[in-house]
Structure formats: C-alpha cells, structure tokens
Amino acid sequence: MAGKKKSRKANKKLKEKLMYKINYWLTEATQRFRLTNWSLTTKFESDMEVDSDTETEQTMLEVACLPDYMEAVINVNVKACLEISDNQLRKVCYHEIAHVLLSNLTHLAESRWVTENEFQNEQEKVCQILAQVVGGK
Predict the structure, then answer these.
(1) How far apart are CA 1 and CA 5, in angstroms?
(2) CB-count exposure of residue 129 (10 Å: 0-12, 13-18, 19+)
(3) Which of 8, 11, 35, 111 is the most exposed place for a label (fewest CB within 10 A)?
(4) Considering only CA atoms, which of 41, 134, 46 is closest in space to residue 91?
(5) Region for residue 70 given its phi and psi (left: phi exceeds 0; alpha: psi -120 to 50; beta: otherwise)
(6) Confidence check: pLDDT of 127 > 80
(7) What are phi and psi of 107, to 5 degrees?
(8) What value does the mean pLDDT take over residues 11-31?
(9) For residues 124 and 98, what is the distance between their CA atoms, to the nearest angstrom?
(10) What percent of the chain has pLDDT over 90?
C-alpha cells in the first residue's frame, strides 16, 4: 500500500513538472513569435482521442485557433508528452505556437481552391521550419 502511495505521489510530481515545462515553453514561444496579445488556454488531459484516419502517431499537443478573436486552446496529451525528451517537447511547443502564428493565413487559405490535404502538408512544413528557426537546436 505504501509503495502505491509513493508511486502515485512521484507520478503526480512528474506530471506537475511536465505541466510547468510545457507552460514555460508555450509562454516562451508566444513571446518569441510576438503573440502576447493572444489569449491562450492550455488544457492538460490524461489521454486524447486521435482521429486514426489522419494521425499516424499519438498526438502530443494540438491547437484550435479563433484568429478573429485572437484566442487559442492548446490540448496537451500528458501521457504522450511523458514519453519524449525535453528537447523534443520544447520543439513541439514551438510547433504548436507556429500554428497560432499562421492561423489567420490558415483561415484564409482554407477558403481557396486547394485540397485540405495539400494545404495541411504545406502548413506543416512551414511550422516545422519556423519552430526550428525560432526554437533553435
């Protein structure tokens, strides 16, 4: 019984530390991308449902943006985030903030004559580049 309590307590501390890091990196990226006028909400979840038709691996973070209102919600899959290194997780945080940066462009581009898949692939490429440039390493 005492072992389970210790294990739960250690697990809780690990999750709290992870949440602190993620919030720190999201704030850091928000500042570096000059998005401090946006309202960002971060939701931490034990496990997230993934659309198996579009996702090939477990989603760590995902963002939903309302560019007209400068609001974004970032959902964090705690379980998936515990499985990667801090450096990888920092890059994922920057990647999601890059999506916020591009959200107005995304909104505009989605109303044009391109397939959703073509547009998503191109947007992912740009987000990866921006995350590497701004996030470094």
Answers:
(1) 6
(2) exposed
(3) 111
(4) 134
(5) left
(6) yes
(7) -60, -45
(8) 93
(9) 9
(10) 45
